[in-house]
Amino acid sequence: MDFSVWPNMSYPVEEILDLVRWLDAGEWHGFWFADHYMGNTGTTEVSDTPGHECWAILPAVAAVTCRMRLGPLVAPTSIHHPALLANRAATIDHLSNGRFVLGLGAGWQINEHHAYGIELEAPGRRVTRFEESIQIIRSLLDQPRTDFDGKIHTIRDAPCEPTPVQERLPILVGTGGDRMLRITARHADEWNTWGRPDGAAERMTAMRAACERAGRDPGTLRCSVQSIVVVTDDDDATRRVLDGPGGERAIAGRPTELVEMLAAYREIGFDEFIVPDWFMGPTATARREMLERFMTEVVGALD
Fold it and tell me: What mean pLDDT do residues 269-286 have?
């Protein structure tokens, strides 16, 4: 199983670039960055939390690294036109010499859509928009010209030049909904979800069923999962994390306990585990020390 890092979009730019240089020099497999414009409040309430724009950060990351994969986790098709996403992806694939992964989602965050006047459509139409977008993007990346007539998008004799460095630039879909899983099974190269091992296992079962209904071998779909990680020898701290808000998306405990949880993810069939570093300390130094501890004491002890 591979291991990647997902930093908070609010960190200063130099801190992000210092982090990716360090990750790239080590054993980390990839770097992911959120494609949002503000912190989530769950409502139309605006957040003033700073957040660097994903498509400005990723080219910089590509330029200062040489080994890791990188991509957005994930780009909402409710906001981005598919032609823009395809052309951005192809260019960053050149900047990274073939290391880019295009992460896509249908879009969900209420406050950023509301604040910027971007319609957050009803779920059915939003997923229809996504389904058309992923087909258009795949064609633009793979074919000399693309034509598409859909309910939402119409594309005419459209190129995407230069083409990506990779023969097939991977498209990842971050989702858990059943209709989105079916679309993922038909059109994506990779799939991503959140959760502790028990919840992630349930979604993996649903994903495999979607592949089988689509006539696809589930083994051809790369699968990644992320969960908040807290490495601690304090049992009370572990309970506070797991019983608190978001506990269903967190793993916490001593290194030996976390080794067992990672082994469970691997047994379920996940190929990649992504570490959001947001709860790993209040400073860049503290977070890096915790990432190092995770890699040394947890990943290093995984058989």
Answer: 95
Nearest 5°: phi and psi at 102?
A: -90, 105
Structural domains in the chain plus CATH codes: 2-174 (3.20.20.30)
Say what the pLDDT of residue 246 is.
82
pLDDT digits (tens, 9 = 90+) for 207-218: 999 999 999 999
